[in-house]
Amino acid sequence: MEIESLVRKNILKLKPYTSARGDHMTGILLDANENSFGSVVKDEWNVGLNRYPDPFHNMLREELGAYLKVEKENLFIGVGSDEIIDLVVRIFCEPAVDNAITLEPTYGMYKVVCDVNEVSAISVPLDKSWQPDLEKIYKSITKNTKVIFICSPNNPTGNLIDSKLIFELAKNFNGVVLVDEAYIEFADKPSLINSIQDYPNLIVSRTFSKAWGLAGVRCGYCVASSQIVSLLYKIKMPYNLNKLTTQVILNALKNNLQKDKFVEAIKIERQFITNELKSNPKIKKVFPTESNYVLFECENPTEVYNKLIEKGIVIRDRSNQVKNCLRVSVGTREQNHKFINELRNVL
Ligand SMILES: Cc1ncc(COP(=O)(O)O)c(C=O)c1O
Fold first, then answer.
1. What sign has the CA pseudo-torsion 58, 64, 65, 70?
2. Structural domain that includes position 342
3. Residues 187 and 265 placed together within one structural domain of the fold
4. What is the reported pLDDT for 24?
5. Which one of 84, 107, 154, 329 would you pick to mutate in the ligand 1 pocket, going by the greatest count of ligand atoms within 8 A of its CB?
6. Which residues lie across from 183 on neighbouring strands?
7. How far is the CA of 41 from the centre of ligand 1 (A)?
8. What CATH number has the domain bearing residue 172?
């Protein structure tokens, strides 16, 4: 497949901004109108806060690439994976002309990003087991469909999407398939990052916000063909990733065993919550999950949600997406106990 043929013409023609720090990182730097005297706060990390960061994230891509065993040229780093979703839509979808497909119920940002960019989001329902219905998807694809979003594990349902279906879709679809693996660390099957060699139209995005415990730092990344990665670097804001974020992520990579420990602990707590919910006769259904949250069904979910808020327990009302369903993120054992007890009282 020719990726170029899918790209918006203005993006192909675009002459990207050439940033000073893209050209030079060392020397007597008098090129970027920075403050050569220093910064007004102590530079705790000694990263040179008075200087703009590397627009191409070279060091981070080398370290993250080594950790993931993917080539640097196949790696793009963004301000959270949300930035990547937005950039992908802006590269491939012509406003007011093209469209993208979302598989509902799913993560709400795909549609919001489409709406912001005046790209119509065609919603195709997942089937009864929350898997993509390929026939329905094929029927919904038009000549202007450029992107299909697949969230795996899916938010809010929690299930992993069958990789065979993803590959079949990628093979048959003349557009890009963005697989959002924000929660993949909690799943029992591996990431699809290594499949980008076989499917040039596949983009796999991941994040440091969940398993790594770094939601406040804002860092996500995607693995894709070098052609797609170059396009992402072409259109992103020159200095999207700040030096503090970069430093924190470099440190996180050195401490990746802690991430594995978190994942183990979260899986245990996920099972605890699932068991407790299942043992409550007022809970109608508890969905299996390969993520760090549990979706469950009860009567009057919005009322339950509000009563829990009154008790200081904040979960997510997903009943507008999945009938009668609430979603709870896995907490510590103490938090989970409080949630389970208050939920029992409320019900
Ligand atoms: C499926 C999914 N993708 C992406 C994100 C956003 O991730 P990030 O923090 O990397 O922007 C979320 C956040 O909840 C999510 O649920």
1. negative
2. 257-346
3. no
4. 87
5. 107
6. none
7. 31
8. 3.40.640.10
For residue 207, the ligand 1 atom closest to its alpha carbon is 10
- Round to whole Å and give the CA distance between 341 and 197: 49
Provide the number of structural domains found in the chain. Answer: 2
Q: Are 158 and 185 in contact (CB under 8 A)?
A: no
Q: Say if pTM beats, i.e. exceeds, 0.85.
A: yes
The full length of the chain comes to: 347
Whether 95 and 197 share a structural domain? yes
Ligand 1 atom having least distance to the Cα of 183: 1
Q: Which of 168, 165, 213, 204 is nearest to 186 (CA)?
A: 213
End-of-domain residue from the set 254, 278, 306: 254
Token pair, residue 45, equals 């990390």
* 176, 284: one domain: no
**pLDDT tens digits along 130-180:** 999 999 999 999 999 999 999 999 999 999 999 999 999 999 999 999 999
The 3-state DSSP class for residue 144 equals coil
Ligand 1 contact, 82 CB (< 6 A): yes
